[in-house]
Amino acid sequence: LSPGAKMGCFTFVKVMMILFNLAIFLGGGTLLGVGIWVKVDGESFVNIFGALSSSILQVVNVGYLLIVIGAILLVIGFLGCYGAQKESKCLLMMFFSLVLIIFIAEVAAAVVALVFTGLAETLLTGLVTPLLKEKYGVDQTFTEIWNVTMTEVHCCGLNNYTDFNNSYYYETHNSYPRQCCDMREPCNGTLAAEMAVEGCFKQILEEIRTNAAVAGGVAAGIAALEIAAMAVSMYLYCRLDEK
Question: pLDDT tens digits for the chain (243 residues)?
Fold first, then answer.
């Protein structure tokens, strides 16, 4: 290519890098703002977005999650946008390194999820089962979340009906949740064992495997964007030596 064509290509890539990372920066700022809003005034957030948001807030600390994701996107967007605009090799290398770290972490998480599914089940059992024993039937929102989940997914507990053994709900009602007996009542141990309703973890895992193609496509798309971002940043970094 002629020097003019090379310069034109460099300018085009630089502008696209700036616009792309500006969008990431603005998106990160939005998520950060929403996260702070949820932490400061979660009640109004629930009032606007309804009961589903209340359920989500009980399961995941959405505020902190949005703040962390928003902050990461802000940093990535700033490094990419400002680094390209100022043609700073230092900022471009920092952008490349940060995206590379995130990419490696995602690949590692995917490998762990595929290889150590049993370990994930063990960890979830250790975390969720005590909550089921203590909060199911006590905390109205927590109970509603599990009732909806067990009814819609046709499952019982995390592993099976034994998750409710010695629980507050069983001790109070002398029965298991009716979802553990395929909506039959009274749901005693004999009927629950006979119906053998599977745990929600296995059911949800089966749903994920059924829709693995979609999940894989989304993951592949994100990975492709990250690889493209790293390639563009490295292209700009190397071209700066020639200017």
Answer: 555 566 677 888 888 888 888 988 898 888 888 888 777 766 665 555 554 444 444 444 667 778 888 899 899 999 999 888 888 889 999 999 999 999 998 888 777 766 766 666 676 677 778 888 888 988 887 888 888 888 888 889 888 899 899 899 999 989 999 999 988 888 998 999 998 888 888 777 776 667 667 767 777 888 888 888 899 888 888 888 665
Fold of 102-242: Cd81 Antigen, Extracellular Domain; Chain: A (1.10.1450)
Cα separations (Å) of 129 from 82, 153, 158, 232?
Answer: 47, 18, 7, 47
Residue closest to 35 by CA, chosen among 74, 71, 76, 86 = 71
Q: Residue ranges per domain, the chain? A: 1-86, 102-242
Q: Would you state the structure tokens that stand for residue 78, as one six-digit string? A: 């700033």
